[in-house]
Amino acid sequence: MVKSTVRFPEPVVEEIKSLVDDGQFESKSEFYRFSADYVLSRTLDEYEPETIDYEAIEAEVIPDAERELGGDRDTDGPPFFESVAFVRKLALRGKFSDAEDFIDHQYVPGDRHAVLLEDILRLYREDTAGDDRSPASEREGDPTTRNR
Fold first, then answer.
1. Residue 86: CB atoms within 10 Å
2. Given 34, 60, 86, 148, which residue has the most CB atoms within 10 angstroms?
């Protein structure tokens, strides 16, 4: 192995020490080796991690849902894309309060999926509000006004 000196901000070193103290890593060196291997394995398709017990460490410190991009297994609620479709359907029908109730009852506040669903709902609300502000003749399809 090659020895390399790297400087880290003090808060980073303190967090690493706390992980070692909590027993998630045997030493700071193990943390640094695992971290480098982990990033390289995610960045380079052909890279094979060399850290001893890499898979065991990965399984212990990184939950499956975080390892699988777009995984819904970390939530107790309905599958995310089904929720998107349902919220969209309610929003298109103008049932914004029903969509809010669905989000509030299916997800805990601050859940990443809830935040995204609320943003989607906000966009549909803005579209509806934009339609309401258009001149009456445009909404009715008056051809003489549109050609001006």
1. 17
2. 34
